Predict the 3D structure of the following.
Amino acid sequence: MKSKSKKTAALELVKLCCRALDDKKAEDLRVLDVSAQSSITDYLVLATVNSEPHLRALRVELEKAVDAAKTRIVGIEHAQQSGWTVVDLFDVMVHLFVADRRSHYGLENLWKDAVEVSVPKLLAVGKPKAEKKAVARRKKPGKKQ
């Protein structure tokens, strides 16, 4: 089992990846904690894209976010027109698929013993305060906008 601080760092990386993918409109974003099943990685991040250009855009955005966080990308695997890209961040593996490839490979089924991590909670935690205040202002009833 990994140390708590290493696990926390991996989860922070998962949050970073989820935010970057969510910002670029990734669909069906799921996170699986596979640390109990895998000696290779702790988390799998799975996302569906709507086209090959969308796949490239998400990969590029992910690379930028990871680079800005000063995290090393171990490797990226993508065969031209395969509909699937894997970004290896060591403790986190990100899989980006077009819909038919995602259903074909069924990684969620292969890792069905993994613990699913709530993506909405990951995206909500640690948002900038200014963003939280703006959301709160929009939600106040009775105020004219």
The two ends are 51 Å apart (CA to CA). Residues 129-138 have pLDDT under 50 and may be disordered. The longest strand covers residues 27-33. Strands lie at 27-33, 43-49, 75-78, 84-88, 92-98, 115-117.
